[in-house]
From TrEMBL:
Residues 6-315 form the Inosine/uridine-preferring nucleoside hydrolase domain. Keywords: Glycosidase, Hydrolase. It comes from Mediterraneibacter gnavus. This is Nucleoside hydrolase. PANTHER family: INOSINE-URIDINE PREFERRING NUCLEOSIDE HYDROLASE, URIDINE NUCLEOSIDASE. GO terms for cellular component: cytosol. InterPro entries: Inosine/uridine_hydrolase_dom, IUNH, Ribo_hydro-like.
Length: 322
C-alpha cells in the first residue's frame, strides 16, 4: 500500500480535534508523519502536549517544532494554550528538546529533500506557511499537495449568530466577528492571503471549510461509552478536558472532529466531495481581513469541500485504531 509523507502544521491543544488528527495519522500504517509544527501563542506548551500524545502512542521521536506565536499586523487572539494543564498528567518531552525558530527551516528543508512527496496539512492559523512561501515561492510546486482546514464558503443550518454584542463578547466571537470569519484563516489573515497567492503553483490545494465539519460531533456520553474505548488514554483525557473547557467558555460541550476530517480526506476520497475554483481571502479591510470567498471555475487552482459524508469519516477514522 502507498505510504503518504505528511507535515502537520497545527495549533495543537486549543480544541481536541488537532489531537484527533495527529493520532489518526500516527495510527495509520499508510502515513509517515515527517514532523509537526505548532503555531500561535504558547507554542512550546502545544509542542509538549503533542509530544505527550506521540509518547503515549509509542512514537516518541516524531520531530516537533515550535512555530510563530505572533501574527502579521494584527494582535494574536490565540495567545494561550488552553489545555496546558494536562502537561501535569502525561509524560512529555522537555522544553530543551524543541528547537526554537527552526520550524520554517524544517519545513523548507523537508519539502526540498522530498520533492513531490510531502502533503502539507494545515489545521491551524497559517502564520508559518505564509512566511514559508514568501521565503521560498517554489515550495508549493514541490509539494505533493496541501490541505487546509479553514475557510467559510457556505452558510447553512450550522451557522451561529453572526453579529457582535456591544460588550461581553468572547475572544472567539471578537476575533471572527461572531463567526462571520473562519478562525484558522482570520487569525492571521495576511499570512492566509499569502498562501493562496495566485503566483503559487500547487499540485492541489484543498480547503475543508468549517461549515463542512461543524455538524459532525459526539456528545461526551457518546464519546466515552463508544469511541473512547479504542483510543489512546491521553487522547481521551484531552477530549474530556476540551468538553470541560468548551462547555464553560464556548457553550459547546461537544467533542468535535474538525481537523481530523480535514486530514483524513487526503487518504480517503469518499469523505468529502470537492469543487474546483479560486479561493480569495480579503486583505484590505482591517475588519474583514481573512474573509473567504470562492469562484467556481473548472480551471481554478484551488478546491473546496462542498459535501461531507459523516459515516465515511467515522469508518475511516476508527479503522486505524486497533
Amino acid at each position: 500500500m502507498e505510504k503518504y509523507k505528511v507535515i502537520l502544521d497545527t495549533d495543537f491543544a486549543t480544541d481536541v480535534d488537532d489531537a484527533f488528527a495527529l493520532a489518526y495519522m500516527l495510527a495509520n500504517p499508510n502515513v509517515e508523519v515527517m514532523g509537526v509544527v505548532c503555531v500561535t501563542g504558547e507554542a512550546l506548551e502545544r509542542a509538549q502536549l503533542a509530544s505527550a500524545l506521540c509518547i503515549d502512542m509509542g512514537q516518541p521521536d516524531i520531530p516537533i517544532y515550535t512555530g510563530l506565536e505572533t501574527c502579521i499586523l494584527r494582535k494574536q487572539y490565540q495567545y494561550e494554550c488552553p489545555q496546558k494543564f494536562l502537561l501535569d498528567r502525561w509524560p512529555h518531552r522537555d522544553a530543551s528538546d524543541f528547537p526554537r525558530c527552526e520550524a520554517i527551516n524544517f519545513m523548507r528543508k523537508t519539502i526540498r529533500e522530498n520533492p513531490g512527496e510531502i502533503i502539507l496539512c494545515c489545521i491551524g492559523p497559517l502564520s508559518d506557511v505564509g512566511i514559508l512561501f514568501q521565503i521560498d515561492p517554489e515550495l508549493p510546486s514541490l509539494l505533493r499537495g496541501m490541505q487546509i482546514l479553514g475557510g467559510r464558503f457556505q452558510y447553512n443550518e450550522y451557522s451561529e449568530r453572526s453579529w457582535l454584542k456591544k460588550s461581553g463578547n468572547t475572544i472567539g466571537n471578537e476575533a471572527t466577528l461572531a463567526q462571520v470569519l473562519d478562525w484558522n484563516v482570520c487569525i492571521d489573515g495576511i499570512a492566509s492571503a499569502m498562501v493562496v497567492d495566485p503566483s503559487h503553483k500547487f499540485n492541489y490545494l484543498r480547503f475543508v471549510g468549517d461549515e463542512m465539519t461543524m455538524g459532525i460531533y459526539m456528545t461526551r456520553e457518546e464519546f466515552n461509552t463508544g469511541l473512547a474505548k479504542k483510543l489512546p488514554p491521553s487522547l481521551v483525557d484531552m477530549a474530556n478536558a476540551w468538553v470541560e473547557i468548551g462547555g464553560r467558555d464556548f457553550d459547546r460541550p461537544l467533542v468535535h472532529f474538525h481537523d481530523a476530517i480535514g486530514v483524513a480526506t487526503n487518504f480517503n476520497p469518499n469523505i468529502c466531495e470537492f469543487v474546483r475554483g479560486t479561493v480569495n481571502i480579503e486583505m484590505d479591510s482591517p475588519t474583514l481581513r481573512g474573509f473567504t470567498t470562492f469562484v467556481e471555475d473548472p480551471e481554478g487552482p484551488h478546491q473546496i469541500a462542498v459535501k461531507v459524508n459523516p459515516d465515511e469519516f467515522f469508518k475511516e477514522f476508527t479503522s486505524v485504531f486497533k
